[in-house]
Amino acid sequence: MIPYPRSIRARSVLVASALSLIALVIVGVTSSLAIRYRLQDDAFNHVEKIASRWSAATRAGTIPKVLPTSGEIQLIQLVDTRGRVLAATRAGWERPALTSLRPAPDDRVQRRATKCHLLVAIRTTTAPDAPVVLAQRPEPTLLRGHILEYVLAGAVLALLALVSWTAWRTVGRTLRPVEAIRARLAEITVSDLSLRMPEPPGDDEMARLVRTANQTLDRLDEAVAQQRRFASTTSHELRNPIAGLRAQLEEALLNPDEVDPHESIRSALAVTDRLDAIVGDLLVLARLQAGAQAPRELVDLGLLAREEAPKASRVPVRVRAEPNVWVCGCHIRLARVLGNLVNNAVRHADGAVDVHVTASGADAVLTVTDDGAGIAPADRERIFERFTRLEDGLRRDAGGSGLGLAISRDIAESLGGTLKVEDSPRGARFVLRLPRLDSRPAEPAGHLGAVAQGTVRSGV
Fold first, then answer.
1. What is the DSSP code (8-state) at residue 281?
2. Which one of 132, 210, 400, 437 has the largest count of C-beta atoms within 10 Å of its C-beta?
3. Is the dihedral angle over the CA atoms 29, 34, 37, 38 positive or is it negative?
4. pLDDT by residue (tens digit) across 163-196?
5. Where does it sit, as one GO cellular component term (predicted)?
6. In what order do the strands lie in the sheet with 353-360?
7. Angle between helices 404-414 and 331-348 (to 10 degrees)
8. Is 429 inside a domain boundary?
9. How high does pLDDT run on average in the chain?
10. Residue 412 belongs to a domain
């Protein structure tokens, strides 16, 4: 059993050759039959033409005893009903009647092909005793033996070889970039994603594949670089509280008489709370980056703002919300975004925080504005980076994780919205935009009431 080739090039050439062979065999057989019929018919017509001439001469009584030859027609005979030769060419006088075939009166011309000769018999008249003209010639050279079949078989093999060679060259030229791509991919490792595959010229499928692969590598390189930066920053942020906690515990063990154990425990608990907050936020970020989708539900953004805004804080939180500003999202995640924004505003506000929910075209817009020092334009994007905390934030709250705004933006983007810092006359103004539902969908009142009251919940 012949093993199936593993190479795409070999398989492609094998399939192309097999299909070509089938087609060429069909064409060859058809051509052989057509050529054989045409050559044989032309030869018969020539013999019949000569025999018809002597048949007319017989009816006119002008036929000689010795008939002249005509090219390859060396045997011509005029025989009677008893098979006696009445007139013939010289070669015809030397042998008996060529055949005993005697055409019928209603079908005066008969053709017969033997192994090597073509014979035509013409009855001169319809009379019962009418003689018959017999003319015979050798079969055309191309039809003798199997010469025609051998010629066509050679042509088929030559064409098959040409097709196979062309397919081999064409497929090889098409797949040549694949080997370069494979070699380059073998050089790419996780530690070095800077290499790119060579792009072939043109805009065919292979060129588009290479470009797409390079774009994928670009995204992968950026993702890996981002993960490395994230891991480095996370390690740094976790190392500081852990180092502080270790130092406090070591000091308590080394100097038990000088250190208040209750104060050490309270300090250790505070550090533990910060570590717990950081780890919790990291888990949320990991789930958001992994594309974990929380079940969607109908959420009245204004009702959410009134429910989730803190009732008591360092500064008052004023909520103004239009009714029936509906969005489709996760109640828990939206509540987390609102909580992050309000807590951040409360931390930086001097006198009050304003929360405003309104409908603007196709968007539901939630704004959280404080009257603090504001955020410099250069820092408005940087604050959404992980573990980024401005100096004013560190001064006001040293225990934060620096992940709240990053999580809020990721949640907004996962819901098809945006979260940005926009201009404000005073303080910082955070604007959350989400796709708004045109109207509250008609659903059973019990279900809608549960949604509106926030009784249907799903965690981040």
1. H
2. 132
3. negative
4. 999 999 888 887 777 777 777 777 777 667 777 7
5. plasma membrane
6. 317-321, 353-360, 363-370, 429-435, 418-422
7. 140
8. yes
9. 82
10. yes
